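STRUCTURE:
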């Protein structure tokens, strides 16, 4: 499977987890923390994969194209914002009144980032990398996922 198909599948999975979290009432702190643990695991692996094998490949090909290069550089920065929110949530007691709000802000940041990737960066990737390289990166992604699951 090509890299974009695999990364989009991750996006859908995380979106479903956030939707589940949205259904929880204010007092469902344990259930919310459990969902956050799943979101944390999925997002952390997803970001690690993109930064290891996907973004560098686009960046390499976008050397002489400032707009496409900016897209990749912004994606890295958006990952940093998401990672910082994840760290704050990991350190926060799930019964803290800010927990739910922080999780919502995490969701909003992830939604924004996913939209940028799917509406712009993935198109750039298709154009610059081509189907063969996307398949090859897809195999690297699958290997990283298998290793993480072992
Ligand atoms: Fe990303
Ligand atoms: Fe992504």
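SEQUENCE:
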């Amino acid at each position: 499977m090509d890299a974009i198909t695999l990364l989009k599948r991750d996006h859908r999975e995380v979106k479903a987890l956030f939707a589940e979290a949205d259904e929880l009432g204010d007092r469902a702190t344990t259930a919310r923390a459990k969902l956050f643990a799943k979101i944390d695991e999925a997002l952390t692996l997803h970001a690690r994969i993109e930064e290891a094998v996907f973004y560098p490949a686009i960046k390499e090909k976008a050397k002489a194209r400032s707009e496409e290069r900016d897209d990749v550089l912004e994606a890295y920065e958006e990952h940093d914002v998401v990672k910082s929110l994840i760290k704050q949530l990991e350190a926060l007691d799930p019964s803290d009144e800010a927990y739910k709000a922080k999780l919502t802000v995490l969701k909003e940041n992830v939604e924004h980032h996913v939209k940028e990737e799917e509406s712009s960066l993935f198109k750039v990737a298709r154009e610059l990398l081509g189907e063969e390289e996307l398949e090859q990166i897809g195999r690297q992604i699958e290997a990283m996922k298998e290793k993480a699951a072992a």
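REMARK: Residues 98-149 form the longest helix (52 residues).
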